[in-house]
Amino acid sequence: MTExxxxxxxxxxxxxxxxxxxxxxITHGLIHTRGARxxxxxxHELIRGDLGRVQDAVINTAISGWRISLILxxxxxxVATWQPDIVTLMIGTNDCSTVWxxxxxxPSEFGDDIATFVTRVRAxxxxxxxxxxxxxxxxxxxxxxxIGEFASAIREVAAREDAILADQHALFTSFSAGxxxxxxxxxxxxxxDAFHPNAAGHAAIALELARVVGVDSADSRVLTDxxxxxxxxxxxxxxxxx
Length: 242
What we know:
single chain; 242 residues; alpha/beta; 5-stranded parallel β-sheet; 5 strands; globular
C-alpha cells in the first residue's frame, strides 16, 4: 500500500491525526498575508472545520529564514516531539541563495538533506509530504536564481523515495498563462514581494496541498472561498490610464 493510500484510509477513519507543517517564512506565514490567514491556517480550518475532524491537531513549526539543514539539526523540536502522523515540508527558498548562505549549498547536497528528512519522518511512523517552493521574481531576487534547480531536487527525491509531492513551484510558474500581455510569466497576483506569497498565494498553496493529500471535499466552503480568491488573483486590477 502506498503512503497516499494509507493517508486516504486514515482520513476515512475516526482516529485522530496530528499534522505537523514545517519550513521557512512561507509556511511561518507572517507579514506578507497582510493579516489574512496563511496556508496552514486554511488547512486547519478545512480539516477541523469542514471535514469535522475536531480531534485532529494541525501544528505549524516553521521559522522564517530557515533552511533544511537547520530543520534537520532541530528535528526533535520541529517535528518529532509532536508525535506526528503527517509531516509537510516546504523548503528551498533560502537554501538556494548564493549570497547570504555560507557555505553555498548545491542542489545535490540539498536533495540529500531532503532525502534524510523523508527517512527521519518515516522512522517516526509518520507520512512525509514534500512541497516545492513557489516560483519567485528573479529580477528582484537574483541571488535566488537557482530556485528552479532546488525545486527539481525535491521532485527527484519525491520520485525516488515514492513520497507524496505538492508541486507548488509548477503551480506558481504556470499561474500567469493566459492572463494577458505584460505578465512576463510571473504570478504577480500571488506574490507580496519577490518571493513571499500574498494572501491569494497562500490560498493557492492551500488548494494544491488539500488536493494532493485528499482533503479537498467537494462541498467545502473553505475550498470554495479559496478558489474564488485565486480566480480573482489571476486577473489583477491594474488601474486606469487617463
